[in-house]
C-alpha cells in the first residue's frame, strides 16, 4: 500500500516545496501578465523562462546555476519547468488559449489557498507522475516499493545520509564506494535511477533537502528531512531505529 500523504501540521509549505512554489508563482505570473507566453512550437517563451529562473529559487537550478551553462534560456534548459507545467496541466490549473497559458477557475482557487491542494499535488507527483525517460510501466513497478524507500529514508535521513548509504542498504550485493570510478556498471545504473526516480522527486516536492555546501558538481551531498516530511507522512518506522527491508 502506498504511504498516505496528508498535510496535518502547520508548516510553511511554499518555503519548503520548490514544486508547489513554482506552480503558485507560475499561476500568479499568468494572472498578472495576461498569461504565460508560448513560442510557435508551444514551449514557454524566453521571457517567462528567465523570470522563472530568477524568481523560483529552485535548488540546483537558480539563475546563476542555469546561466553558468547557457547564456540564453529556453524552457528545455530549465528541467523543473517541465514538471511545473505538466502538473499545472494535469491538475487543470492552466489551459492553453492560442499562444498563451491562462489560469483556470481551479487555478485561481489554487492561487488563493495553495496549501489546500498540497495533498493532491504531492500524491500525484510522487506516485503517478511520469518523468522524462520513464514509462507508465516504470511508475507502476515502483508502487510496491515506495513504503520501503520512504521508511528507509525516514530512518537514515534523520541525522543525514548520503545516496550511497541508502543504496548499500537496498542493494547489499552491490558496492557503493566513495570513488565513482570504482563502481560497476550495474551499481552506477542503480544509483542514477534511484537519484532520478526517488530522491529528486522527494527533494523537488520539498520533503528532503540536499546539503551541498563546499561540494563540487560531481560530489554527492547529504540528505536531510525537512519539516514538511513529518508534517505529511506517518510511517511505520517513526518509532524505530532500524527498518527491515521486505
Q: How would you describe the overall organization of this protein?
A:
With 246 residues, the chain is mostly helical. The chain has helices at residues 13-16, 18-32, 46-55, 63-67, 79-90, 105-112, 118-127, 136-142, 146-156, 163-170, 185-205, 227-232; strands spanning 36-37, 94-97, 100-103, 208-211, 222-225. The chain is built from 12 helices and 5 strands. It has 2 domains: 13-120; 136-239, Arc Repressor Mutant, subunit A (Orthogonal Bundle).
Mean pLDDT metric: 93
Q: What is the approximate shape?
A: globular
Measure the end-to-end span.
Answer: 13 Å
Number of contiguous helices: 12
Instruction: Kindly name the structural category.
Output: mainly alpha
Enumerate the spans where pLDDT stays under 50 for 5 or more consecutive residues. none
- Kindly estimate the percentage of residues that lie in beta strands according to DSSP: 5-15%
* Biggest beta sheet summary: 3 strands, antiparallel
**Helical fraction:** 40-55%
How big is the Rg?
19 Å
Count the E strands.
5
Number of domains: 2
Can you list the strand order of the major beta sheet?
A: 1-3-2
Order of helices and strands: HHEHHHEEHHHHHHEEH
